[in-house]
Amino acid sequence: MDTTLLAALDGNIATVGYGLAAIGPGIGIGIIVGKTAEAMARQPELRGQLQTTMFIGIAFTEILTLLAIVTGFIF
Question: Rounded CA gap, 33 and 22, in Å?
Fold first, then answer.
C-alpha cells in the first residue's frame, strides 16, 4: 500500500477516536446531572450538598475528557 494512503487512514481513525473521547464523558455528565436532579426532587433539603458533589463529579469527568484528547495529540 501507498504510505500516503496509510497516513491518511491514520488521521481519519484518530479523528474518530477524538470524537469518541468526547461522547463518553458527555453521556457521563448527563447521567450525573440527571441523578442529581432526581435526588434533589426526593430530598430538597440536601440541595447544597448534592450540587457540590455534582460539580465535583462534572469536573472529574471533564478532566478525563481533556486527558483523552491531549493523549491523542501526544501519541
Answer: 17
Domains of the chain: 15-74 (1.20.20.10)
Task: Supply the DSSP symbol for 30.
Answer: H
Please state, in angstroms and rounded to a whole number, the distance separating the CA atoms of residues 36 and 38: 5
In this prediction the pTM is 0.67
Helix axes 47-74, 3-42, angle to 10 degrees: 180
Residue 58 burial class via C-beta count within 10 angstroms: exposed 0-12, middle 13-18, buried 19 and up? middle
**Which cell numbers hold the place of 68?**
483523552
Residue at 43: amino acid letter: Q
For 26-55, write each residue's pLDDT tens digit.
888 999 999 999 999 999 999 999 999 999
Report the alpha-carbon distance of residue 74 to residue 69 in Å, rounded: 9
